[in-house]
Amino acid sequence: xxxxxxxxxxxxxxxxxxxxxxxxxxxxxxxxxxxxxxxxxxxxxxxxxxxxxxxxxxxxxxxxxxxxxxxxxxxxxxxxxxxxxxxxxxxxxxxxxxxxxxxxxxxxxxxxxxxxxxxxxxxxxxxxxxxxxxxxxxxxxxxxxxxxxxxxxxxxxxxxxxxxxxxxxxxxxx
Length: 174
Description:
Blueprint: H1 2-27, H2 29-63, H3 69-86, H4 90-100, H5 105-127
């Protein structure tokens, strides 16, 4: 994760500046700025349209009781793509359009699902098998060479109810 942050905050801006300078040398500074502004305007329009579609699909899946995995992934991709399109630069715009456009988003969704599945496998592999419900699950084995002793959890400071003949807040005479 640390390497990803280094790439995101150090390498990407350097690459963006390099590409902007190279494009500026080819088509001129004013044309480069105009191209960046046009890309941002088109990106904002597409993000608004696709974002409302993805949000409506997510809301529809949730209200119908379906598992909204595809819709949730689309909404996340549009959100990340919109953020990349708002960042000035050509490289981030390419990735932003890849995440946002309806004909490239299915490929991005497949890549995202593979990434998430790989990360989930690593997490399960690191912490052992996942049980089915409360308790240790079917893969539980008692510690080697030891006995399993049944027990009960008792709180440190048990709260005792007041006696029946006294009400709290009422003084007793004597």
